[in-house]
Amino acid sequence: MQTDAQKAEKHTWFEDLQGYLFGTSMCAFALVMLRSMGLITGQTAGLAILISYVSGWPFGWVFFVVNLPFYWFGYKRMGKVFVGKTFINVALISVLSEWFPTMLAFETLTPWFGAIMVGFMTGAGLMAIFRHGGSLGGLGILALYMQDATGIKAGYVQLAFDACLFAVAFFFMPLPQVLYSLLGAVVVNLVIAINHRRDRYIAM
């Protein structure tokens, strides 16, 4: 007898495409808000934002380049289809995050409110990407690879990276900005933890 997961139909290419466009648009819009407030986030995107702040290089290009080394780990653990989908999403984020600021600007954005909304939008965008079998690459792939290789849980690897990232941020950013950034990162992780349930959402 087939399980619900076995009976579930796979997404079509068009459904995947709209999922990626929605997800990356939400994440890119959130990144525009984040950068307008001078905040960062966790994971690879946070590293790329911090590098962008310090160097003055465009975030989109930095994010694209920072992700390049991780595709090999993704290929080894999850295969070429996953890597291809991830590459598309990373490329979309890189382009959209540089394009969106040419079409909008924020006159007033209260940091605590902005951080929470960034967390909500990023979480929603990531959920759409995850449910269509993609990712935004980066540290999440490496963490899963290390979990397979060493037995260290992926969540601990990601937590350790974020702890180091925010510790470094204290040397380059004012304390309130780092704390608001932490608030946004907590909201993102709560959205993913509560809503990313494969036992409830089985279509892939």
TrEMBL record:
The chain crosses the membrane at residues 20-41, 47-74, 86-106, 112-130, 151-172, 178-195. Pfam families: YitT_membrane (PF02588). It is a multi-pass membrane protein. Keywords: Cell membrane, Membrane, Transmembrane, Transmembrane helix. GO terms for cellular component: plasma membrane. Coiled coil: none annotated. It is found in: Cell membrane. This is Uncharacterized 5xTM membrane BCR, YitT family COG1284. It comes from Celeribacter halophilus.
